[in-house]
Structure formats: C-alpha cells, structure tokens
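Worked Example 4.2. Consider the chain below.
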Amino acid sequence: MIKLLQTIPVLLFGASLAVIFPQVCAASTVQEIAILAQASRDLPMVKSAGLSPDMDVPWSKAVRIVDPFEGEFLGVFDRNSLGGYLYREGSKQVISLWTPSSIRVLVTVNSGQATSSFYTAGRVYTRPDYFRFVTTKKVDKLLLKVREKVFQLDGSNGTFAVSQELAAALKNAPDENLDIRLVLEGGQTVDSEIGKGTVKAWRTIY
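Applying the procedure from the previous section yields the following structure tokens:
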C-alpha cells in the first residue's frame, strides 16, 4: 500500500506531461514518462545552479538541480583545469553547467603571490605571503565541435541557449572528449575540452 502511494504522484506527474506535451506521448506512453520521472528522482540532488570556483558538486554526472530561484531541472556539471596545478598562479579553470535549455560557462584565473619584507638586526628578510586571488572572465562566445559540425553560440553573461539541433547533436555525441573554444570579452580565446564522462551524461540530459 505504501509503495502504491509513492507511485501515484509519479504517475500523475507523467499524466500531466501527457496533457502539456501531447507530441511526446505520440512516441512514449504515460507509463514510460512516469518511469523517466522516477529515474530523475533517483539522481543526486544539487541545491543550486550557481557556478563558483570552489563549488562542491558531483562532476560529470547527471544530477537533479533544485534551485530556490530557478526551480527543478536536470543538468551535468563539468570542470577542466588548464595550465597545470589547479592553484598555480596563472592557471585557468573552465566550469560549465549543461541543462536541457542552456549552457553556462565560468572561466576563472588564479593569481596573486605577494611578498613582504621585515627588518631585524640590521638585515632585510623577505617573507613570502601567499594570497590566492580568483578572477572571473566574461565569456561572449562558445564554439564546440560535435563530430564534423562546429556550433558557434552567442551568449549573455556566460549563458548560451541550446537549440533542438544542438541538443540532438550533444545527445548523440561520440563517447570521447569534446573540444570547445571560449571567446572572452576583448577577443581572447581559451581552448578547453569537455571530458567523456560529461559527454556520456548528456544522453540523460538531452
């Protein structure tokens, strides 16, 4: 009886989708939609869609995002470090969030090694003090190559819309790393890649 009560809301959710999106039901039954809805409930949950340098999320795995401002949706977070050691001065980090409707990208740059001097017994000693500064760069364009096709996306504040054509390409991307190029404000480019773990997770997202 308890299991039945837990299943009813999922079936109602699937039925509501059938009313809102009848074209989906042409290919899938209400029961299949309910199974998909239940599967999404079993994914790890992340409580924010915000991107930050030190965020702690499951990387390269499909997750269920429950954001207090944006609602609930599926997504996959990806991170790639450029320039060697993550915290080395000058190294870059490309963080992205892939959802059914958009791609969000954050580029950070690590910098800041400060030194200070002090006097004692007539001599000058240099004492290194390390301060970690993380700055973000505005991303104006995103280029990604899926198989032989290059998609060039224009964004706003690092957010890029996902078209039906792009969603289909991502869903069917080969199981391998995928190259991307970010064009920053001012024209600087940053070449990075999306790991094959994230590429595999796209099949759940799209």
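The CA atoms of residues 81 and 108 lie 10 Å apart. DSSP finds five helices and eleven strands in the chain. Compare this with Example 4.1 before moving on.
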